[in-house]
Each structure stands twice: as structure tokens, then as C-alpha cells.
Amino acid sequence: MPGLIFITLCYAVLCAASPFGTCRKCQGWGAVIRQTRNGRLKRGRDCRRCEGYGRRMRVGRRLYNATVRLHRDGLR
Questions:
Q1: pLDDT (tens digit per residue) in 32-72
Q2: By three-state DSSP, how is residue 12 classified?
Q3: DSSP secondary structure string, 36-60?
Q4: What is the rounded CA–CA span in Å between residue 44 and residue 18?
Q5: Which residues touch 8 (CB under 8 Å, ≥6 apart)?
């Protein structure tokens, strides 16, 4: 039980310090990387998940932002 609390607190600190992580679909490239017939790597179309930025917001940060938004706006 204390280990789970420790891991949760570490993840919360990570989300506060670095709210964005690399995109899991494009590995931070921002685009689909393709290989031409002669073996060269070529940038393809923009990644749909991260919209070409190569970064995504962490799940913990999304939950924090939603909680702050609910607290600020109130439950209407």
C-alpha cells in the first residue's frame, strides 16, 4: 500500500514538472516516418494523434486540468 501511494505521488510530481510527453504513435517525430524504395527515411503526413507536434498531454495532467476547471467554474 505505501508503495502505491509513493508511485502515485511520483507520477503527480512528474505531471506537474513535465505535463507533456512524447507521442506514442509517432515516437515524438510529429509525422509518420516512411522508408523509400532505396532505404532512405522520408517524412510522411502529420501524425493524427498529436497533430504534428510530437508531444501529448499526460493523462494525469488532463485529470488535474479537468478538476481545476470543475472547481473554478463550479458544478452548474
A1: 888 899 999 888 889 999 988 999 999 999 999 999 999 98
A2: helix
A3: -TTS-EEEEEEPTTTTTSSEEE-HH
A4: 28
A5: none
